[in-house]
Amino acid sequence: MTYPVNPPNLRPDLAPKARFSEPKRDGQPTIGMVSLGCPKALVDSERILTRLRAEGYAISPDYTGADAVIVNTCGFLDSAKAESLEAIGEALNENGRVIVTGCLGAEEDYIRGAHPSVLAVTGPHQYEQVLDAVHGAVPPSPDPFVDLLPATGVSLTPRHYSYLKISEGCNHKCKFCIIPDMRGKLASRPAHAVIREAEKLVEAGVKELLVISQDTSAYGLDIKHAEDRGHRAHITDLARDLGALGAWVRLHYVYPYPHVRQLIPLMADGLILPYLDIPFQHAHPDTLKRMARPAAASKTLDEIAAWRADCPDITLRSTFIVGYPGETEAEFQTLLDWMDEAQLDRVGCFQYENVDGARSNDLPDHVPAEVKQDRWDRFMEKAQAISEAKLAAKVGQTIDVIVDDIDADGIATCRTKADAPEIDGNLFIDEGTEGLKVGEIVQVEVDEAGEYDLWGRLSRSE
Fold first, then answer.
1. Whole-number Å distance between alpha carbons of 183 and 248
2. pLDDT given for residue 23 in this prediction
3. Which residues bind [4Fe-4S] cluster 2 (predicted)?
4. Are 172 and 283 contained in the same domain?
5. Cβ-count burial of 416 within 10 angstroms (0-12 exposed, 13-18 middle, 19+ buried)?
6. 192 within domain boundaries
7. Minimum mean pLDDT among 131-145, 194-208, 387-401: which range?
8. Residue among 328, 337, 407 at smallest CA distance from 379
9. What's the rounded mean pLDDT across residues 4-30?
10. Chain segment 333-373, per-residue pLDDT in tens
11. Is 155 part of a structural domain of the chain?
């Protein structure tokens, strides 16, 4: 299968689909939410909706039942911007009363140029401005006897897993990225606040915590790894503290700094999941230099070997860019050769796109669209072959899985410790699922493997 543009399931800027389950009382003012962008944006949406829910608003899963709609936008790529504009237009057509927030909200003139009738435009994590806009459009009407806020707030993900955002912003200056311009420099949350939120989530039944930020490895650097109320703001300490809560802990967006190796023993000991999501982006030093990223691909291979020596079960996920300006065929071949050596478990790839405001736009020697497509196809063929071989090696093993869904036919969709929601593969159980519940962690014998997914049956020891 070929794609004319970056396929949605391989874009690094997509969040899981929002899920709503809040009932509505008679006469309750109702706000719809469209949440685009990355999981970090999904957390922003949850915080906005939690505040609105506390003020007496109901949350609508569609346009028609809402008094107004909030569109939380993405501005990571030009294609994501176009998707955001399309979503705003759809909300205007279906509802007519639209408030825009999120990363693309930092470009108000751009949004109003396409959709001048939006009620308000606010930038990323400007919660108070969003609330003010909602109040102006749809005054609150709380009922103190009914509108009781759950201890965990409003969640847009299934109840058994939750994203845990530990910081905002980023100090990197990658030429292809404008996230620091939109979300600012690194701003870490105090460790005790992160732990308290995690404790509440686990107490409410969350079985998996997905740690997210723009640069998880740098957590606490801006606040000098401050210690407060018994918790130190350093990713190693935070991971250890989170691991003590008894839930699965999965780390996303981890840059391969030297101190990352301190996390590996925690994985080997079972305290956190043996899973690292690392944005390598490329392997050729010249390409990485043009990206303004650390050009140490050979040392990265050494690090990967060391991680696997200390924790043989570790799963490594990454995303890459092909067709970056100036990328030669030789540079691309270096990336393919690096993939052969690295043997990453989970891989996503997207074709380079100009993004308004990114410094990479001004680089010479942009790669033609047909060449980018060809390289994407070849890269994904390589990644798929690696994935298929790695999954085939799991046949016959008994592994832990978490149950995400059980459909009307009794087929259970699950994930292993090697699979993050929405972006990785699944394990399916198609018989013997009577009595199984969503959110359970069970043991499964793997009996079949595909390119990205597994199939299995419940272990007889269960």
1. 28
2. 58
3. 170, 174, 177
4. yes
5. buried
6. yes
7. 131-145
8. 337
9. 51
10. 999 999 999 999 999 898 998 887 889 999 999 999 999 99
11. no
Tell whether 409 and 350 lie within a shared domain.
no
**Contact criterion met (CB below 8 Å) for 377 and 436:** no
pLDDT of residue 152: 47
> pTM of the entire structure?
0.74
Q: Which residues of 299-324 are buried (b: 16+ CB within 10 A; e: fewer)?
A: ebeebbeebeeebeebbbbbbbbbbb
Provide mean pLDDT across the span 205-216: 91
Higher pLDDT pick, 63 / 306? 306
Q: At what angle do helices 329-342 and 369-392 cross, to 10 degrees?
A: 10
Q: Are residues 216 and 303 in the same domain?
A: yes
Domain boundary pick from 392, 414, 430? 392
Which strands sit side by side in the sheet containing 208-212, from one edge to the other? Answer: 161-165, 208-212, 248-251, 275-277, 315-322, 346-351
pLDDT tier at 151 (50, 70, 90 boundaries)? very low
Q: Which residues are annotated as a binding site?
A: 38, 74, 103, 170, 174, 177
Q: Which residues are annotated as a binding site for [4Fe-4S] cluster?
A: 38, 74, 103, 170, 174, 177
**What is the Cα–Cα distance from 454 to 461, expressed in whole angstroms?**
20
Say yes or no to pLDDT of 16 above 60.
Answer: no
Same domain, 233 and 252: yes
For residues 205 and 346, membership in a common domain is answered with yes
Distance from C-alpha of 218 to C-alpha of 213, rounded to nearest angstrom: 9
Q: Would you say residue 312 lies in a domain? A: yes
Neighbours of 5 (CB within 10 A): 15
Nearest to 304 by CA among 270, 254, 349: 254
Are 399 and 361 a contacting pair, CB within 8 Å?
no
Other CB atoms within 10 A of residue 226 CB:
15
* Residue 99: pLDDT over 80: yes
Cβ atoms of 19 and 49 within 8 Å: the answer is no
For residues 224 and 372, state if they share a domain: yes
* Residue 26 in domain: yes
Look up residue 422 and give its amino acid.
E
pLDDT at 139 over 80: yes
DSSP 267-283: HHTTSS-SEEE---B--
Looking at every residue in the chain, the average pLDDT score rounds to 85
168 & 259 share domain: yes
287 pLDDT exceeds 80? yes
Domain containing 269 equals 161-392
Separation between Cα atoms, residue 294 and residue 175, nearest integer Å: 12
CATH of the domain at 412: 2.40.50.140
